[in-house]
Amino acid sequence: MFHYADYYQATYILIIGMILFLVAMAITYKHASKRKLKTGIIFLSIFVFIFGGYKIIMCKLKTDQMLQEKLKQDWLFEKYSGPANIQYKDYPPIYIDSNADVLNITVASFKETLDNTPKWLYKNASSITLTSQQYLIDNFERDKDVMGCSFFPDMTVYTTSHATSSILEHEFGHIYDYNFFITFNQNHQDIIPPDVLISNQNAVCEAVSESNSFEHCMSSYHETFADAMALYVESPNKLPPDLKAWMDSLPK
Ligand SMILES: [Zn+2]
């Protein structure tokens, strides 16, 4: 694959090549005695000037474009240094903890995930905080490989900077569950969910086991529903058809 530096070099080679050619043509023209030859040299020089000039411009444009792409790629992997509070479109505000180890690409992927999340799923979340794993362990009594959590008293979602898009959708699934009483009742106590979720628990947990923990998914119906919601948003074809049909019928 061509690197931008190759195009950079090619631009200079073309410029030097064209200058040398035109100088050679000028010398030949000076020493030529036949009129036909002189006319030929003029036409050839004009052709090379126009064609070579076009090639040089195209090469320069390509160099600039590749350089821009390279700078953007470099920027994506730099540490995030923007505002700690991001209001992106009408999504819940994103807060970034200073100890969250966030890169520009982390924020860019979060925005992309939000753009793929249906409004009915995120609308009850009040904010999203990108924080460190240690913060979640210390404040929410989570285990050491926690990637995200939802805090129901104020409907906030927390994820680490290493969380995948399905973890964010999973946390939105918990918030949805809490507001629409799938595995909770109005008093926010655990309830037995609809049969369709119970009978498909194993299938849902198998489907997410490639990226998430099968055991965690099986640990409660809250977790199974949240994982089913992440699948519903990202890979609905992996849901058993009866579960998918039930989720289609849920309030949106
Ligand atoms: Zn969960």
Structural summary, described in words:
The protein is α/β, with parallel strands linked by helices. It folds into two domains: 73 residues; 164 residues, Collagenase (Catalytic Domain). The chain is built from eleven helices and five strands, in the order ααββααβαββαααααα. A five-stranded mixed beta sheet has the order 1-2-3-5-4. A hairpin with a 7-residue loop joins strand 1 and strand 2. Helix 1 packs antiparallel against helix 2. The longest helix has 42 residues. The radius of gyration is 30 Å and the shape is elongated. The model has no long low-confidence stretch (mean pLDDT 93). It binds zinc ion. The site of zinc ion has 4 residues, from helix 6 and helix 10.
Class by SSE composition: alpha/beta
Oligomer: single chain
Main beta sheet strand tally, sense and closure: 5 strands, mixed
Mean pLDDT level = 93
* Order of neighbouring strands in the sheet with most strands: 1-2-3-5-4
Number of domains: 2
Query: Which small compounds were modeled alongside the protein?
Result: zinc ion
What integer value in Å does the Rg equal?
30 Å
The first-to-last residue Cα distance is 47 Å
